[in-house]
Amino acid sequence: MNKDFVEALQQVALERGVTADELITAFEDSLRLAYLRQKGYKPKDVEEGMGPVVEVHLDPAGGGLEVLEIKTVVEKVEDPDKEISLADALAYDPDVQLGEEMEFPVDPEEFSRIAVQIAKQVLTQRLKEAERNRVHTEYKDKEGEVITGQVTRVDNRGNVYVDLGRGEALMPPKEQIPSERYHPGQRVKVYLKQVQRSAKGPSLIVSRASEELLKYLLRQEVPEINEGIVEIKAVAREPGSRSKVAVTSHNPNVDPIGACIGHKGQRIQAVSAELGRERVDIIQWSANPREFIRNALSPAQVGNIETDNETKRARVVVSKDQHSLAIGKAGQNVRLASKLTGYEIDFEEAEEITDLDMALAKAASREERPSVSQDAKSRFESLFADEGKDQEQ
Q1: Where are the beta strands (DSSP E) in the chain?
Q2: Which of 58, 122, 132, 237 has the most C-beta neighbours closer than 10 Å?
């Protein structure tokens, strides 16, 4: 063994992304196992502790290689592989004592071509394990973050593989934006959803369909969100098509919706462009469920809302001309509103909802009253009617 070999090992370590110490340890372990295999011990035997105790030491500085068999000095030998009698030990060292360990050098020339091949296989395996451990350790700390990667390939099942720099991640079809098409070399922002260990190494699952990716992009584009002035309270998303984001402001002088949309819609357009032109609706969050549901159903204008907080159901009065808008194309608007608010929404269609009905319904929501009584509504309408008569006279 020479110094050039050690330098070659260090170069391989650099290319594989592992430390030189890790690679040298793997090399030493591979030679140890190869020696035991040459002695006739199978991997299972080695795992069970059978065979001699062998140590391999590679000197990184000088390139020297030392293989040693370790035996314990005993009065009576029961395991010849691991023990040596005191009488035999004294022939090597007159000062040796019972219980001491003796080292017996092994000539590296004793390694056969088969043993060298075994060592190569074990080293390759250990090297892969070291790489896998390094990748798992590095990306486990990044789980839940958004990373920019490069698409490497797309298989015939529609799975997209993304190079994250030190590891390759999988983006299955359910984590993709349906309207997007991916091709090798394409750079994409992905949310690192899951990092797991498996028999084949660390499994990295990334997503572009996650709601967390939308939150990340909003934080990047809207300084008020990044600074904590504006808070994202809830997100409902149908990737590539439409999303609803509920926001609130912790500063009365900052309009949360305006901050997210930006001047001439520049901020929200940048977010939409990154998500394949997905439409992103920004709505005002409210602690009042009825007001929150009303906001979530926009752009539809709805009337009175009754909620059951125990069953998480809401009954919403809507006029005929607003009914289809409240439901949305293929039910998308109400589906997103339901997901955003956590309430299952049922509609009750009314022939017509006047501006007065709308004003009273909104007031009831804001004041958190169950509803405006019919008697109060009639008296309120009569005041307007009397005022109109006076004006005519």
Answers
A1: 53-58, 65-74, 83-85, 101-106, 146-154, 160-163, 168-171, 187-198, 201-207, 230-238, 242-249, 279-284, 305-308, 313-319, 344-350
A2: 237
